[in-house]
Request: fold
Amino acid sequence: MQQLSVGMVGLGTVGAGVARILTRHADRVARRAGRPIELKWAVVRDVKKRRDADFEGVRIVDDARRVIDDPEVGVVVEVIGGVDAARRIVLDALAAGKQVVTANKALLAEHGPEIFAAARKADRAVAFEASVAGGIPIVGAIGVGLAANQVQSLAAILNGTCNYILTQMTQGGVAYAEALADAQALGFAEADPTLDVDGTDTAHKLAILAQVAFGADVRTADIPREGIDRLEIADLNYARELGYTIKLLAHARLAEGGLELRVGPSLVRNDRPLAQVHGSYNAVRVEGDAVGETLFCGRGAGMMPTASAVVADLIDVATGRAAITARALDFWPAAAAPIAVLPASRTRRRNYLRFLIADRPGVIAAIAHALGDKGISIASVIQHEPTQEDENGEPGPVPLVIMTHLAVEQDLRDAVREIDRLDVVRAPSVCLGVEE
Ligand code: NAP
Ligand code: HSE
Reply:
């Protein structure tokens, strides 16, 4: 069979890993693909940058058109990141009749419908396994392996950078800024790491999983999200005291009236598998109506885990499986999505609340009253003895931590707004989700 020529746009962390597998393990790849896969072109921003030896024989250029216009190229791999240039390259590649492999979650979360409409028009596949959860083959697992199921819910750790930072902070006592710098040096972080730590990258991935698992057509802006960038050490410590670990979680659940989606730092009970997922590892818990609970776990970021997913997609393109899967699964179809996203205010979850309160009679009663008024039931409470005195020698403000039972988000917001208005409350309240 004729070899498959690859034009890869991007030769950074992921691109270099792909080049390494294609050159160092060419025989293995050819055996599994049924034909050789040759990296013919690599497109970069700066052709003068020093590159390592895995690119011997590869034509390195700074103009993606060279690749798109080469009739020998059968597949374009997009691993540059960002949205605008990547969108242009992918659309041009499809229009030129190339198959496409991408690791770009931001692109698909923002332009999935346009990209897949172009792919259908060109009768070409866009394979995107590396865009969610790095090396874990979660798109194939849900789309193909669990095809008999209606997915009921997902809870997932989808950002390796954040999971690495949280692990370093909780287990290694490392400061946030140092842990983030390490994650960048290890190649886990996005070019702009704000996207990692503010929850946007996780929301991009959840938007993709919402399409793959539920057929929902979701933009990132539709997903309520918080990151780990404003998380305080105090909350990591209280979570530990309560028997929980804080993880940045993506959550999706079929609920009455629509799909619940959210991203945020959440408390996970220590005896649950997601609490045991550390470092750059990701994990996705998928509940299907036939299979029940499943858990997929593996490295979610970094050069070789991500390259593993990209090369698997290339092998699928080479064998023709990618084209069959694309037609069968029909991601971001022209037809209207079968399910809408539930407004955040109508979603339900358990909550962890931390208030800084004056140590005076009746304060806890006032807070309990505000919660009770909204029908929110308290599951447990922690308040320690005050350790500081104020300027009058009176006990200083003390943290009060409350775990609630399930509550409707709007009721919770109303209650917390009420509580924050009380003159005995000394700082804006902290509110985190608790994953069941
Ligand atoms: P990276 O290390 O920053 O590499 C980006 C590469 O793209 C560089 O080679 C750069 O050229 C090139 N490039 C950037 N803009 C370009 C343009 N307009 N035209 C041509 N080349 C351009 O990024 P990365 O970490 O490999 O990530 C790439 C993609 O994979 C992103 O979508 C990211 O979200 C996704 N991803 C990354 C990981 C990970 O762990 N890193 C995991 C999963 C998915 P120069 O070399 O000349 O600078
Ligand atoms: N920056 C991303 C992360 C890369 O840390 O998970 C993998 O998508």
In short: The pocket of NAP (ligand 1) is lined by residues 9-15, 43-46, 49, 79-81, 85, 103-105, 130, 134, 187-188, 190-191, 301-302, 306 (CB under 6 Å). The chain has three domains: 4-134+305-329, 138-300, 346-435. The radius of gyration is 24 Å.
